[in-house]
Amino acid sequence: MAIQRIMLIDNEVGLCRMMEAVLRDQGYQTKSFTKPVQAVAEFTAGDYDLIISDIKMPEMDGLEVLKHVRNRDPEVPVIMITAYATVEMSIQALRRGAYDMLTKPFEPDELIYRVKNALQHHELVEENRGLKEELNGKFSFENIIGASASIQATLERVSKVAVRDTSALITGESGTGKELIAQAIHHNSARSNHRFVAINCGALPENILESELFGYRKGAFTGATENRKGLLEAANGGTLFLDEVGNLPINVQKTLLRFLQEQEFRRLGDSMPTKVDVRLISATNSDLSVEIANGTFREDLFYRLNVINVHLPPLRDRQDDIPLLVTHFIRLQNGKFGTDFKGLTPEALDAARSYSWPGNIRQLRNVIEAAMTISSGSYIGLPELSQLIETGHLVPTDQQFDYSSSLGRFETEYLTRLLRKHNSNIEEAAIEADMNMATIYRKLKKYGIDKKTIE
To answer: CA 20 to 30 Å from 219, out of 175, 247, 348, 365?
Structure first.
């Protein structure tokens, strides 16, 4: 961690020396000024992590120092020192942007306490800003990879959908990136400061899905030992994303329809309705018109969900985007594992562009990650790619592997390297891999990997 730098401004030389000695003992880097005009002249945004300034000084008082500091760096915390503390003076300093007030005389322990608080608060502000910028960058439309006419037309539609606070249905084949588009809509909408909550409607049994969505009251069913909020309440003010919405059971569809009509619902076992303000975005890779004809999906719910439709084209219709996506996935893996792959050979790239990619972008990403694992050079060649997809080219018999077995080899090596990196800490490995811990444990069991033997 970088040494934190503190500027001290006080016309009393003895007080400056005392603060310097105390703060340096705590590991801080300090620079003191007995003339505020000189301090202001030397101050540059980003040079200091904290300013400590007396209020009553000749030539320039502390409030004027605060004004100059704030004009150049609105974020750096400032602690004001005074021997004449009044409520009016404190309010004036805080209104002008001071973080804290310190009254003379003060003990070294109090100085240390105030300094640590100010620096910790500043670190949290910076961390939150960084996370928000990261989210805005990750989910901005400019960062969704693709230059083809089809994806650009889709993104133009998505940008219009984001600002309209209404239900939207995202359609497209499995693996086309429907959840990424849903996240982009949320993070570019007026709801971006609230939660984005996602659930896969096909991944849970009917009774669990209903309680997950709407919550329940204590005693609503066997095992309901306490009141629990559902995902609709968790997403209040934000967005709820229903992936594979075509798998919703009919009784859950009925409750969801009531919510869309009334913006309220009842928890299981509750007699009183709960009102929330949630935008609903749903996605499906099935043809809901067929589900409606079969009687497995309500037509009135479909129209409520499909106020605005966004269709994602399959990767086979975006061949011009394949080189961009390949470059993106290679860059991600290089950054994660410290490798230096340059890309695909011309023959391998031609084969990738000619392939139909039935699993779309998800399959392309898995294939690139697996190919990087089994490649020994700086480029992924046709022999490696032919082990993972049908390229129309023969490879030696001892190098032929189907996609499933090659993906298994990749996942085995990937998990082994990941656990080695994190000293077999499953939680840390799950965070880096963006996987849940249960998935990692399941894959370890599947491939017979014993984390205790990884060194």
So the answer is: 247
Tell me how far the alpha carbon of residue 374 is from its chain's centroid. Answer: 30
| Percent of the chain clearing pLDDT 70 (strictly above) | 89
CATH number at residue 352: 1.10.8.60
* Neighbour tally for 415: CB within 10 Å: 21
Which residue type occupies 37? V
Specify whether 404 is located in the same domain as 433. Answer: yes
Strands 308-311 and 78-82, sheet pairing: unpaired
Say whether both 112 and 187 belong to one domain. Answer: no
3-state secondary structure 256-311: HHHHHHHCEECCECCCCCEECCCEEEEEECCCHHHHHHCCCCCHHHHHHHCCEEEE
CA distance 343 to 326: 7
- Amino acid in position 324: L
Paired with 50 in beta bridges are 6
φ, ψ of residue 224 to 5 degrees: the values are: -85, 85
Q: Cα(338)–Cα(331) distance, rounded to whole angstroms? A: 10
Residue 372's SS3 state is: helix
Which of 118-127, 153-162, 223-232 tops mean pLDDT?
A: 153-162
Two structure tokens written together for 433: 């891999």
Token pair for 382: 């046709």
Whether the full predicted model's pTM is greater than 0.70, yes or no, is no
Residue bearing tokens 């309500």: 298
